[in-house]
Specification:
The longest helix is centred in the C-terminal third of the chain and has 13 residues. The chain is globular, with a radius of gyration of 15 Å. The protein is mainly beta. Helix content is 13%, strand content 43%. The protein is built from 2 helices and 9 strands; from the N terminus they run ββαβββββββα. The N terminus is likely disordered.
C-alpha cells in the first residue's frame, strides 16, 4: 500500500462539508515503518480543550494501526522542536527527527515532510479513528 504523500494539497472543489476532512495535518514525520503526525481537529466545538483539538498520532504503515500519543509537554528552541508523550519522546527539526519509545527504548529515525497533505486512504483512516475516539 502506497502511503507516500501527494505532492499537492487535495482538490477540495465540489466537496461538501460532510466529505471535507475533519482535521488539518500540522506536522508529518515518517520512516519506512511508521509515521507520526500532529493534527488539529476541525469537527469540535469552539470551546473544546487543546488536548481534544490537537492530537499526535503514531501510525503503523503496514496495517494502518493508529495509536494516540498522549501529550505531556513541549519545548521549542529555535531550530529544534521537542515533544514529550506518555509513550515516549520526539525530537525534530526542519528535516529529520527521532522518536524514542518510553517502555522499550526503541529509537525510530524519521524524516520530516513540510508538505502535510495525506493520501486519501490515510486521510480516511485517520478520520475513522477520530470518529471512534469521540
Amino acid at each position: 500500500m502506497d502511503l507516500e504523500m501527494t505532492a499537492k494539497q487535495p482538490n477540495l472543489a465540489g466537496k461538501t462539508p460532510s466529505t471535507m476532512p475533519s482535521f488539518e495535518c500540522l506536522y508529518y514525520l515518517e520512516n519506512i515503518y511508521l509515521l507520526i503526525i500532529e493534527i488539529k481537529r476541525s469537527d469540535l466545538a469552539e470551546n473544546a480543550g487543546k488536548n481534544q483539538k490537537f492530537k499526535w498520532l503514531k501510525i503503523d504503515k503496514e496495517n494502518l494501526d493508529i495509536t494516540t500519543l498522549h501529550f505531556i509537554s513541549m519545548d521549542s528552541s529555535g531550530e529544534i522542536e521537542e515533544r514529550y508523550f506518555e509513550q515516549g519522546y520526539l525530537k525534530f527539526n526542519a528535516t529529520i527527527g527521532t522518536f524514542i519509545e518510553k517502555y522499550n527504548s526503541a529509537q525510530h529515525p524519521l524524516g520530516r515532510r513540510m508538505d502535510c497533505s495525506l493520501t486519501n486512504t490515510l486521510q480516511n483512516t485517520v478520520a475513522d479513528f477520530l470518529k471512534a475516539d469521540r
